C-alpha cells in the first residue's frame, strides 16, 4: 500500500505574525517558514504505519512556490520515500488544493491519504473533508489514534470530539486528518538528511493535473485582532461599581 | 516566587540537618562562644547546602547584626576562611548625611524604607546580605557626582548597584555601605542607524535596550539570562560575557566609550562613538570589568549589530572529548562567518535534564558521552542551511560526529536549547550544587572534570559537568551536584567534601594558566583568590591604581582586591 501525505509550508508556529500594511494578507518576506505542525504529525503517522509493515511507500506532496521543496526535503529527511512538488505561484483555498490532491490520487492510487486537520496559517480545516468528498472515500478527521487492519483493509480511528472520544472504522482507501495528540514527530537526523539528498522530488504543474484553479472566494481584507486594552486601577469601591454599571454593563 | 517556595521547602530539611552538623564539630572555637556557635554552623552549612539554606540564613544574619559586625557575610564562599571586618576608617551614617542627600536628590529619591532596603541589601541568589540603612537614587550624572564628592569628604563607603543580578556578591553592601542605585538613569540618548552606535544611560535595562533595537533592526552585542533586570551600566562594570560573546566579542571591544564618575566626584567624559581613537591611554577599559571599584559608570556608548534573520541549530552527539575539540576547530574553519554558538554538555548533564525536567527528550536516539549545540546566524536561509548540513555530513563521514539532528522549525530549536539552558534548573532540583565559573585552555576543560571525578567519586557526585564550551577563551562553567544525602552523611563530613574541592579547583586552574573567574567577576566571593590568576606584581599595580583613583577606598570596598591591602 502507498500512503500520500500532504505537507504545507507555512509561517513558523513561533513567529509573530505581521499583517501587510495594505491588508491583503500576512507578511511572509524574511519570515521563517516551516512545515505546518499538523502536517508533521500526519507524516509521522504515515511513517509509523510504514515501519509497522502496513505500507510500502510514503509519498509527501506540497503545493505552492519553489521554496516548498525545502518543506519536502524536511519530509524526506524525516523518512518519506519521495516527494511531489506541484508548482503554483499563488496560494490556494482548500477547494483548489482538494482538487489537486484528487487528481494526484487518481495518478498515484494511494491506499490512504493523510493530512493535518488544518493549517496554522489559514485555520480552514476543510481540505481533508473536501478531498474525501471529491474522491468518494470515507473520512476520519481529528484522529488521535489510528490502527490499521491489513486483512479487513480498514482503519480504526479515535477522534477527539467535544463529548470525549469517538471511534470510527473506515474502509480503505480513506482520508485521515490528524490532531495534535496523535503522535510526537521525529527529528531529522544527519544520516536521514544525507539519505534525503538522493531521494527524488517530482515537479508537476497544474496543467499536468488538469485542475481548474478558478476560485469562488475572494479575500476582501486581512486585519489584526483588536489590541487588548490595558487595565485601570480604580481608586474606590464607588468608582468600581460605577464602571461595572456604566462601562461594563455587568451589574 | 516559585523559586523561593522551593528554597523554603528544602530549608526544612536543611534546618534539621544543620543541627546534627553543629554537633559534629563543637571543638572549633576561635571567637566568643555565642558568635562562633552560629558562624561555624553557618559556614559549614553555607558551603555545602548553598542556596537551600535560605530560611536559616535570614534568621542568623539578623542575629549576626545584633552581635556586632564581626561575622563573615560570605556564607557560601571559599574555604580560605577570610573574615572581613568593617574598615574602621569609614564613617557611619549620621542624620546630617541623610538631610544633605535629601537636599540634593529630593526626599523621594533617598530611600530609608526597610522593605526596599531589604531587597537592595540582598543579592538575587540570597547568598550575600548587607545591612545598609540608605539607598540613593540619582537621576543624572551631576547628582552621582555630588553624592560621591560628599561621601568621599565624609569617608562614607558606597556600593554602586544596577539590576543586582551578580553572582559573586559584588552588587550588595558587605556592611553598611550607602547603596547608589542608578535605576532612574534609564534614557536612551541617541542611536545612529548607519553606524549602529547606541548611547544610553547606565540604568537602562538590557532587555529594554534589546527591544528598542529590535524595532530598528539591530541587536545588542550581549545577551544574558538576567536580561530582564540587569542594567547596561552593571554589564559594563562587570564586563559581562553572555551568549553572544563568541560572535561579537567582549565588552572591551564593543563598548566604544563611557562616562564615569570617580570617588572624588570628577566626571570623566570618555563617551566617544569612534571605533578608531588612539589618543593616549584608553582609560575607559579601567572601568570595564572593575566591578565599580574605580568609579561609577553613568553613560555608555556601545556598538550594536544588524539583526540577522536566518538562524539554524543542530544538536550533535560525539563519542569522545577529542572529537569535540576537533569539531570546534572545524566549525570555526567551515562555518566561521555564520557560527554564533558552540555549546557543550556531557552525558551527566543530559541525564540530569532528562530526569528532572518535564517534557524534555534526548534529540538523538542513542545515548552518547558528549553533546554539542551548534547555532548559525546569518542572512541567507538556504545558503546557511546548506552550509551547516554540508559541514555536519562531512563531520559524520569523518567520524567526528556519531549522530545528530538539525532543527526543522523554531519549536524544535527551542526544545534543543531547553536542554542546554535547563541544566541550571535541573541542578537546583537535583540537590546542593557547587558552581565554579572557570576559564581554561580548551584542551584542559574536560581533564579537570575527570580529575575531580576521580577525587570525589566515592562520595556520589551525581553531576560534574562543564558547559559553555566557547571558542577563543574557552569559558567553562563547572557544576557539581550531589543528590544522595544519606550516602553523603555516611561517608564524609561536609568539611571534608569542601576540602576535597577547594583549593584544589583553584590550584588546578592556576597551574594550567586558566582563570578562576571567567565572567562572573571576583566580587566579595573571590577577592582573596585573585592570586590564583594574577601575579603579585600585577595585583600590586591594580592596588596602586585603586589607591590613585579612590584614595580613601570608599568605592565598593572589600571586593575585587584582597581587603588586606586596604585595612589599616
UniProtKB/TrEMBL annotation, chain A:
UniProt key word Transport: yes
Domain of life, source organism: Eukaryota
Single Gene Ontology MF annotation: electron transfer activity
SUPFAM superfamilies: Adenine nucleotide alpha hydrolases-like
Pfam families xref list: ETF
Domain Electron transfer flavoprotein alpha/beta-subunit N-terminal residue range list: 23-213
InterPro entries found in the cross-reference section: ET-Flavoprotein_bsu_CS, ETF_a/b_N, ETF_b, ETF_beta_N, Rossmann-like_a/b/a_fold
Cellular component aspect of the GO annotation: mitochondrial matrix
SMART domains (alphabetical): ETF
Main location: mitochondrion
GO biological process per UniProt: amino acid catabolic process; fatty acid beta-oxidation using acyl-CoA dehydrogenase
CDD domains, per database record: ETF_beta
Function: The electron transfer flavoprotein serves as a specific electron acceptor for several dehydrogenases, including five acyl-CoA dehydrogenases, glutaryl-CoA and sarcosine dehydrogenase. It transfers the electrons to the main mitochondrial respiratory chain via ETF-ubiquinone oxidoreductase (ETF dehydrogenase).
Assembly notes: Heterodimer of an alpha and a beta subunit.
PANTHER family: ELECTRON TRANSFER FLAVOPROTEIN BETA-SUBUNIT, ELECTRON TRANSFER FLAVOPROTEIN SUBUNIT BETA
Protein family membership: Belongs to the ETF beta-subunit/FixA family.
Protein name (database record): Electron transfer flavoprotein subunit beta
UniProt organism field: Brassica oleracea var. oleracea
Higher taxonomy: Eukaryota, Viridiplantae, Streptophyta, Embryophyta, Tracheophyta
From TrEMBL, chain B:
Enzyme kind, highest EC tier: oxidoreductase
Domain spans labelled FAD-binding PCMH-type: 128-307
GO molecular function terms listed in the Swiss-Prot or TrEMBL record: (R)-2-hydroxyglutarate dehydrogenase activity; (S)-2-hydroxyglutarate dehydrogenase activity; FAD binding
Catalysed transformations (reactions): (R)-2-hydroxyglutarate + A = 2-oxoglutarate + AH2
Superkingdom in the source lineage: Eukaryota
Gene3D superfamilies, per database record: 3.30.465.10, 3.30.70.2190, 3.30.70.2740, Uridine Diphospho-n-acetylenolpyruvylglucosamine Reductase, domain 2 (3.30.43.10), Vanillyl-alcohol Oxidase, Chain A, domain 4 (1.10.45.10)
Positions in coiled-coil regions: none
Family of this protein: Belongs to the FAD-binding oxidoreductase/transferase type 4 family.
Name the UniProt record assigns to this protein: D-2-hydroxyglutarate dehydrogenase
Species this chain originates from: Brassica oleracea var. oleracea
